Amino acid sequence: MxxxxxxxxxxxxxxxxxEVVDRPASVVRELIDNSIDGGxxxxxxxxxxxxxxxxxxxxxxxxxxxxxxxxxxxxNATSKIETASDLLSVxxxxxxxxxxxxxxxxxxxxxxxRTQDILEGHRLRVAGGKLISIEEAGAPVGTTxxxxxxxxxxxxxRKFLRAAKTETGHIVDIISRAGLPFPxxxxxxxxxxxxxxxxxxxxxxxxxxxxxxxxNVARSIVEVEEISSELDITAYLAPSEMSRTRGDRLFIYVxxxxxxxxxVTKAIMEGYGQRLMKGQYPQAVVFLxxxxxxxxxxxxxxKQEIRxxxxxxxxxxxxxxxxKALPRSFPVFxxxxxGKDKWEVNKGEEVGLVxxxxxxxxxxxxxxxxxxxxxxxxxxxxxxxxxxxxQLGNTYILCQVSDGLLMVDQxxxxxxxxxxxLKKGFNTSQLEVQNMLVPYKLExxxxxxxxxxxKGEDLYRFGIELDHFGGNTFLLRSVPALLTDTTWDSxxxxxxxxxxxxxxxxxxxxxxxxxxxACHGAIRAGQHLTNEEITRLFAQLEEMDLPTNCPxxxxxxxHFSYYEIEKMFKRVV
Length: 573
Hints:
Elements: H1 9-20, H2 24-37, E1 42-48, E2 54-59, H3 66-71, H4 99-105, E3 108-114, E4 121-127, E5 130-137, E6 142-148, H5 155-158, H6 164-179, E7 186-191, E8 194-199, H7 206-213, H8 215-220, E9 222-226, E10 231-237, E11 250-254, E12 257-259, H9 262-272, E13 284-290, E14 295-296, E15 307-308, H10 311-325, E16 343-344, H11 358-366, E17 381-382, E18 387-392, E19 396-401, E20 404-409, H12 410-427, E21 433-443, H13 446-461, E22 465-470, E23 473-480, H14 488-499, H15 507-521, H16 531-542, E24 557-561, H17 562-568
Parallel strand pairs: 1-7, 11-13
Antiparallel strand pairs: 1-2, 2-6, 3-4, 3-6, 4-5, 7-8, 9-10, 10-13, 11-12, 14-15, 16-17, 18-19, 19-20, 20-24, 21-23, 22-23
């Protein structure tokens, strides 16, 4: 008796459908892709019970004829490609010809469609992959697909669907992602009688960004554009202080297609670099436009995984674009930021009624001048030299700047200075080393002893000399000269833990070791500084490559505008 058998076509279709359709949101994604490829300018999605009972997608695209309606049910029937070589020039979102037959095999589906050149439309009904009927019907130009009772014939799959609220959330996410690269198309999602989402057509990205990431993030976003012969990059990047513990607001698009790509994600993270704390992800949207022949989109049936033919070049260009867009200056003293030229106070922003105007604070700092007329306030400019106020809790440095207050974390600021100086000395093999007159005795654990005995030579490259004195005792004989007022026991213990992560050949591990050294060698919170020491600290910080964040990714300074302070104290009505 044969043990190998050929599965019936219907069973094979249901199995294959699992690769394309795993929940109602997958249905919405595939149907929206078809609507966009069909030239739709308006897409309306209606759902019931989180899409488990009904998913309906209507558009005003080119529509389908009677013959096309019948053909679209056949697996691998598509209008997007004809030969295998066409895969090298795919510009549409869909092309595999699997979405409609896959959905039809696991639901009760109806399609109504009409083209511009025909007066009557056609209605097609199918259940579980079996054609029920096709007939003439009145319909506007375009296509409407109704998918009811998803997975009605696969109970095992249906029981894994989540609550209606959860499935609705996935659908909202899918539509938001789909609408972002196509601001000229309007999208609307209704759940019964309730409008859940409504994107009006626009020629700008900001309204879509605001809906997807929130208005506060959208207002703070920095836009960058890099155009080249091989790759065009447009990125919308939120400040690092708005980072999240999850990468759910990191969106990547390649030729209008929303993808999940580790290469581009890593490039974005590297572009942010030490502006991000460990375990944090930025909020960013990155659009890549590339020759279709240089990217493979036929990796997975969901079409959300891709491969670049020249991945190294793509990686480097994305890193460069992100680095270029993010701020690299520390705005305190003349020569950069607020201290250089004139600063516009609330230009174009409606401040509201206040007991003392925002403008008047800056004028009191500057001297006597007649205040502007009310209608001229939004054009007023002032020039004010920064002024060091002092320390708060011997931890934060307070500075009065032209439009408000600047708070600086003294430990984070000095940590950045020590880190970059250590790195510069290490890379140029000119790290200054200080020999101890009296060696410092350290008692290590058995595990720490083993690591030091194995990697003692690597420590020496960082200017740290440890001699084994017997047992678990070691003598610390030399350290980098930049490290002062350091608690050697905790420093060496943390440094050894960093060495345990791998070999020193990796840049990541080298940065980890240098970060530990910088942290222990920096000015501590709670340490009093004179104005001269603060001035010297700021002067050194301005010379750093990245004076905005410490090596751990924490922000070095925080700026509060007069308008924000007015709101805090309820002076803005």
